[in-house]
Fold:
Amino acid sequence: NYFVINKWLRLGVKMRWLESPRGYHLTLFDDKKVLVTFSNPNNTDERITLELSNPAVVKLFWHQFEDIWVQSRVLKP
Structure:
């Protein structure tokens, strides 16, 4: 992940870091779709991703993302 993260930072992607055991990853595209990926913490190759487009669910995860973003620290290249 080190090389991917640094490449994105050099491209100008705003990234932040919050160390916390969550057990899932959020990928937000817009206000219409969210991807939620759950993985085995001992083997991240064991994972499943849900693509969700229900407006209430997307809004819920946007709020979750905003809470995480506020608590996290800025990553710099």
